[in-house]
Structure formats: structure tokens, C-alpha cells
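Entry type: protein chain
Record version: 2
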Amino acid sequence: MNFLKITLGILIALSASRLIPHPPNFTSLIAISFYVPAILGQRYIIALLISFLITDLLIGMHDLIFFTWGSVIVIGLISKYFIKNIYKRLIGVLSGALIFFILTNFGVWTTGFYGFTINGLISSYLLAIPFFTNTILSTVLFSILIEFTWAIMMKRNIKKV
């Protein structure tokens, strides 16, 4: 039952940032993909993927699902190495943003939009830099929100004991 409740919570949080109007790449995607497995355990990566499936069905399926979902899995798997303190979590979540940038823009290049050349690959990354700025800003903002919420929850749990 807990898994279902948490999955529903993830879906609501993810949906809120993906479905309401927002600047391109300004979502909670990276922060949630990092913090959910880091805090709750890697078994919740499947809950993330279920949430992404549902929101992608609503937004519209696309050719880059393998790369976006793949980045979610990679970010979730590495999160356990960065959980120790807030500084490591910041490095981890920003690494997650970089992983997302690298994987998804490689995916864009594989669609042939920029041509299957080294110049096309470079263009795919260079033209994505403005979107990466939004990814970094949203990742930091949502990470602060998650850190703040997590600190409050931990304080309440300590007081109960």
C-alpha cells in the first residue's frame, strides 16, 4: 500500500511540473529522478517510470523516450552514491542534469534532425545549451524544495520518537 501511495505522490508531483505551462525543460524531472531513489530506495525507480509513462501518454509519446527514460534510470541508479550530505546531493543532482543533457541530446542527434555527422552531433549539443540552463535552474529550485521538505519531515519524525 505504501508503494502505491508513494507512486501516486510521485505522479502528482511530476504531473504538476510537466503538465502545467512552463518554460522548456523547466520541470521537476531531474530532481525527482534523483531524490526519490536516493531517499526511498532504488525500488522506486519503477514508480518514476510509471509516472513518466502516464505523463508521456498525456503529453504525447515521442521518439526520445528511450533516452529520457534511460536518463531517469541512470540518475536513479547513481543517486545512492551521493546521499551522504547536502553537498554530495547537490553534486549528484547536478550530475543528473548533465547525464540528462548528454543522453537526450545524443538521442536528438540519432533522429537525424541535425544530420549524422560530427558537426550534426556538435550542433545537437550546442543548440541545446539554452534548454540546459532551464534544466539546471529547475533542478536546483526543485532540489531546494525537496531538501527543505525532507528536513521538515525528518525534524517531525525525530520529535515523535
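Comment: The helical segments are 2-19, 29-40, 45-59, 65-78, 86-110, 118-126, 129-160.
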